[in-house]
Amino acid sequence: MTQDYGVDPQAAFARYLQIADRLPRTAAGGLAETGVFTDIAARFDLILFDAYGVLNVGETAIPGATDTIAALRAAGKAVGVVSNSAAYPKAHMMARYARLGFDFTTSEVTTSREALTAHIAGLPPCRWGVMINPAVDLGELTTLNTTVLDDRAESYDAQDGFLLVGADGWTDRRQTLLEASLKRAPRPVLVGNPDLVAPRETGLSREPGWFAHRLADRTGVMPVFLGKPFGQVFDIALDRFNRAIPPARVLMVGDTLHTDILGGAQAGFATALVTGYGSLTGLDVGDAIAQAGLSPDFIVPNI
């Protein structure tokens, strides 16, 4: 199974604008400052990084990213990752970071999958239909009563709710089956990755958020989103660091205005937008900021 790389940056950004009223609200922000990333980071105690488009593109580390993390550690800074990655168990992610040359510890990495499982822990047991590549280890999701969604139409109506965690291998047919089932009987939909797209080596892949907003448009069922820009994932991340750090001493670094920048601002963090490798690549960044009404505190081409 493979990802769908059929989304160009302009179409992805236009879609973010269309669904912006479903996202948290925040002030527009002021004029963004540009500069050298390490000089900017020196002003903060904790620097949180998005992964795709900031540290890596697909399975490839962005040049210089590992050196920057090492330099921040040498300067006494706390560093961490807050990622909308839900398709794999955390051990898989940690192995990827190690393979790419990053030295993050497990406690330094927070994923939207962890926000999802924390949310599910507070719900009554039920039957969950899962959007995920069936070849992937379900990890901690095996403790739930789950069915991996496929092309069998009857399996959709048998579920009490749905978990959208990984779009690898997801097809328009399966999306249509899911939407038809929800029209017949609305049920909860939890989204473990609110991203619309993610930067890969060969383009932007459609992610669970893309399909979640489509089903909301077509069925009227409003999903619950667990991940950036929503607050749960940031709360989990901060719990793993020193809660005494004032939010203004935290810098959130990301490539997407409507997830990383909006989410960081909602949490009270300063924000830095990376423009060289992520979802805004090739777009007029100033125009995108103006259209979105979301201004980062800083703009850098890379870290």
Automatic annotation (TrEMBL):
Any one GO MF term held by the record is:
hydrolase activity
Note the SUPFAM superfamilies from the entry: HAD-like (SSF56784)
Entry keywords, A to Z = Hydrolase
Keyword Magnesium part of the UniProt annotation = no
Instruction: Please give the superkingdom of this protein's source.
Output: Bacteria
Query: What Pfam families does the entry give?
Result: Hydrolase_6, Hydrolase_like
What protein name is recorded for this chain? HAD-superfamily class IIA hydrolase, TIGR01459
Give the source species: Sulfitobacter litoralis
